[in-house]
Amino acid sequence: MESLIRGNVLSHVPNGKQFCFPFVTGHWTSHSLGKQVLVAEPSVVPGRLCRDRPMDPVRVAVVGAGVMGLSTALCISKLVPGCSITVISDKFSPETTSDVAAGILIPHVYPDTPTHKQKQWFRETFDHLWAIANSADAREAAVHLVSGVKESGAVTLTRRIEDLWELQPSFDIVVNCTGLGSRQLVGDLEIYPVKGQLLKVQAPWVKHFIRDGSGLTYIFPGVSNVILGGSRQSGDWNLTPDAEISRDILSRCCALEPSLHGAWDIKETVGLRPYRAGVRLQKELLARDGRRLPVVHHYGHGSGGFSMHWGTALEAARLLNECVQALRTPAPKPKI
Length: 336
Ligand code: FAD
Prior knowledge:
28% helix
């Protein structure tokens, strides 16, 4: 396990690959700066638990590298001292659902999540992105670069996880940010896909967004293209674009903005929104054969992942901090 992690981590470094965070316009991209980045190796010492030596770093595995996994890793690095963070995922940008999103910040409704929580997550996300938009980095942010997990001392590992117990004893705590993958990984049958299809076109004269009242049809000018949407197909796992849906999107968008008849370089893109009646933000203590594995679940954002990501990532980091404190608390000595 140790060599596997180190081998894979090191193989990422020469690429100079950085994972960037969505800007207020919601662009999500990986952006190679063509330079080396410093990363810290995880302290992989199988069989050792942090509570045995309270000052050792707590080894945190964040599973998933979409907007949730990366923003959670960043929030943990900012809020919870004394952790080594490894982001483990079978897919990284540009292959995640988060890469497909239109990236518009609009409040979405989660029936099973208390309204005050949804408002708090949206406000924290909005404030975070608004601050970036008004910072000295705004110009650079507008061309996608905002921040990077490697910059924060986290390391990445490309690997599919079939069972969270695979991560024990190499890690002390696991954060589950696998989105739709949680259906299989943790057997959560409440999460399901809602397929969405978008068109990315060249229409540089379009400078303002247009969105119809239902939210199904929208035209959103980005930095390098204009996004035309959209579609919703509940329960559909098929990632292949449907030509009929593309024609329908183009026709609906042209009805809103007739000049789009002149758009060119039309590219279709498909993603599966990880739908759930409520976002799962929850601690769970797994137990098997006398072993324990604390897990923080952070998934199920459906259509609103970008709109909520910073607020829910902060909350996931707070839950992780509670797990860290519990690990650092010495077990009571047995009375003789
Ligand atoms: P993902 O991006 O799917 O990331 C999950 C990660 O987990 C991936 O890296 C995956 O490889 C990894 N993973 C899964 N299972 C495993 C496993 N077993 N082992 C290892 N790794 C695993 N939201 C908005 O707020 N505004 C919008 O305008 C908007 N538009 C959208 C348009 C479309 C067409 C779509 C499809 C979505 C849109 N969304 C929008 C929603 C947003 O994209 C999602 O809510 C968000 O991307 C979910 O992020 P995530 O990190 O939870 O999931």
